[in-house]
Design goal:
alpha/beta; seven-stranded mixed β-sheet; five-stranded mixed β-sheet
């Protein structure tokens, strides 16, 4: 038992010393890991130093037998904290970089890191339990003494032991290098397989991969050619959609895995809305997002995004082995995986190019630059093909169960005018109009149509709403999609001959108007996208108030200015706050003036205590004028009011741009 306890202690000693040295060699990475795991910004710096120091202390305590029990106790406390932090982040669908061994080795926190820390914790617990004299409760019996054991060896045995340990270490290093080389070769082969698979998928509705497709993107996810896992998720308005419903038009499908609190995801959202409009009729693009319906609705409305489905605990991401956000995967016309999972904005753009046969859709800011420093003109994006109107055509037939299980067909209403209302008992907008709908049922106007609620949800949930109209269950919302409905509540009128008599109308007031024989309000067309200003252009007009209520006019500002698009609630902004403060205090004379264009309240921005002028732009309209898609991002404007840089996205790019002199 003494030597087993000694072996357990040695494993813990080596593990903690290697981990501590790796962290001390990369303190910046350690601070970032602390922030990623949820440690407050103000504590991340001290914690990044205290953690490896505690690991060194645990290792040193484990070496002598007299203090080994206390070293095991400290080890168990540290490992329990690691396990709790990893488990908490996994429960929230996050996989931050664990930075477990600092500069030596790191990986995203997940099941492997959880298991590894669990095994080490078991070793520490073993030393705690068996390193104590159970009768005297003495803690000085935690195995053989390392130094005492070596003292019993002859000179030859000591030399042989040292050489043996050296050989074991050398073999471990060589094995580590070989594993990484094999891993790299494997990834290269997977990428080659991916290109071949995408080229072969032309018959399945996908174009060949471009020759330069994603040479550096990792090949993760399910094997190409396997059946895509099904799912059943709620949309933003409570409607339930399945994978089959998303693919019901028979087109190839791209699933995008995002999170409303992910900075790179938010930077990609404007492109996603544009892709959905440009490639309608060629490719289904659906977002599988975490977070609440409310925060996702805000982003969907801001960027014109449709088909956002909400997952809990990364359930669908895990099925598709999509380990991070943003990431994406292609599904062909036959419902099979057509690509590995691509992670990051650039890889997703190239994946889109392989799916549509178009060049990878990069932002306009990345287009070629003309000789005068301005952006080269780019071709106008084609308008999204409009969905063909069903008015005057035979209505799509359906057969659905009512709340008592009886089959109801659209043909049952032939000879009568019918109003199909697409409904969801869990939809807040449906709940708000329920009283109006009940009032309509109790006092139907003359000549009113037969109202048929085509609803998601359970029979019990629909019965609980107390509506007397015929209600049929369309759990996958497939019938709604056949008629062109994209959300609830919405409605369409069918005439007595079974032909469609109106366009789909959306919203409670319009549904009631259509039911009452009145003309619904016209649907507001999507606002046309405002082309973002480019490098070399005159800067857009910016007139905003700062935190003191004073107006700032960019065109009257004659100083070189770095506009930093900011959000006090953005995790990426919070992480770079200290670095930005330090840079502002020490910035060179030739550097541009920093002006933050921020969302959020004045109080939230004041609380960050950034020594720069902060302008309030709650709707992010100014950021969109310059082509910014998220925070933190920045653009340079020279003293003559011209845009002097492309939009820089992310803290490192923003800080690099901050140090670029303009007027010398």
């Amino acid at each position: 038992m003494e030597y087993i306890l000694l072996l357990a202690r040695l494993i813990l000693v080596i593990t903690f010393l290697v981990a501590a040295v790796g962290k001390f060699l990369d303190l910046a990475g350690s601070r970032k890991a602390m922030r990623d795991f949820g440690v407050p910004e103000s504590l991340a710096g001290p914690a990044a130093i205290l953690l490896p120091a505690a690991e060194v202390a645990a290792a040193l305590l484990l070496i002598p037998t007299r203090t080994a029990w206390w070293g095991a106790l400290l080890s168990l406390v540290l490992l329990a904290a690691f396990i709790a932090g990893i488990a908490y982040n996994m429960s929230k669908g996050r996989a931050p970089d664990c930075h477990c061994f600092g500069q030596i080795h790191s990986e995203p926190a997940g099941p492997r890191t959880l298991i590894r820390n669990g095994l080490l914790a078991a070793l520490a617990l073993f030393v705690l339990l068996f390193g104590t004299d159970r009768w005297s409760f003495s803690h000085g019996n935690a195995g053989a003494s390392l130094l005492g054991w070596m003292g019993d060896l002859s000179t030859f045995e000591i030399i042989a032991t040292i050489v043996g340990i050296g050989l074991i270490a050398a073999v471990a290093v060589i094995a580590y290098i070989l594993v990484h080389l094999l891993g790299q070769n494997g990834r290269v082969l997977l990428r080659l397989d991916t290109i071949e698979a995408l080229q072969q998928n032309g018959a399945a509705g996908l174009a060949a991969a471009p020759t330069g497709a994603a040479p550096g993107s990792p090949a993760f996810g399910l094997p190409v050619g396997t059946a895509a896992p099904g799912f059943k998720l709620e949309g933003l308005h409570g409607e339930v959609l399945t994978l089959d419903a998303v693919r019901s038009n028979g087109l190839p499908t791209m699933l995008l895995f995002t999170d409303p609190n992910c900075g790179p995801c938010n930077a990609l959202l404007p492109d996603i809305g544009k892709w959905q409009r440009e490639h309608a009729g060629k490719l289904n693009i659906a977002l599988i997002s975490s977070g609440s319906p409310e925060e996702n609705r805000v982003k969907a409305a801001e960027h014109g995004i449709s088909t956002i489905l909400l997952q809990e605990n990364r359930s669908v991401s895990n099925e598709y082995k999509a380990v991070g956000t943003p990431s994406a995967v292609l599904i062909d016309r036959n419902g099979r995986i057509a690509s590995p999972v691509s992670g990051g904005g650039d890889a997703i753009r190239q994946l889109l190019g392989s799916a549509t046969g178009l060049a990878a859709a990069r932002p306009a800011a990345a287009a070629g630059v003309a000789a005068n420093g301005g952006a080269a003109p780019s071709a106008q994006a084609p308008a999204a093909p409009a969905r063909p109107s069903l008015v005057g055509q035979a209505a799509p037939e359906f057969e659905l169960p009512d709340l008592d299980g009886k089959t109801v067909k659209l043909a049952d209403f032939k000879g009568k005018q019918a109003l199909l209302v697409f409904w969801n008992p869990g939809c807040g907008f449906c709940k708000k109009m329920t009283d109006d709908l009940k009032a309509w049922e109790n006092d139907k106007p003359a000549g009113a149509p037969e109202l048929v609620l085509v609803s998601t949800g359970t029979a019990e949930a629909n019965k609980a709403m107390g509506l007397s109209s015929v209600t049929v269950l369309d759990e996958g919302f497939s019938t709604g999609r056949k008629f062109g409905a994209t959300g609830t509540p919405s409605a369409i009128l069918i005439d007595p001959t079974g032909k469609v008599a109106s366009e789909v109308t959306v919203g409670g007031p319009n549904v009631i108007a259509l039911a009452s024989g009145k003309k619904p309000q016209p649907q507001a067309p999507a606002a046309p996208a405002v082309p973002a200003a480019k490098k070399g252009d005159k800067a857009p007009d910016v007139k905003l108030k700062d935190l003191d209520g004073k107006e700032f006019d960019l065109l009257r500002h004659t100083t070189d200015t770095l506009l930093v698009f900011w959000n006090p609630g953005c995790g990426f902004c919070k992480r770079m706050t200290d670095e930005l403060k330090q840079w502002i205090k020490e910035k060179p004379k030739t550097a541009p003036e920093i002006v933050l264009v921020s969302t959020g309240t004045a109080d939230a921005n004041k609380a960050m205590e950034i020594p720069a002028r902060i302008l309030l732009d709650d709707g992010f309209a100014t950021g969109r004028k310059f082509g910014a898609g998220g925070t933190p991002s920045a653009v340079l404007v020279d003293g003559k009011g011209k845009i002097a840089s492309e939009v820089a996205v992310g803290a490192p790019a923003v800080m690099t741009l901050a140090g670029q002199p303009l007027s010398v």
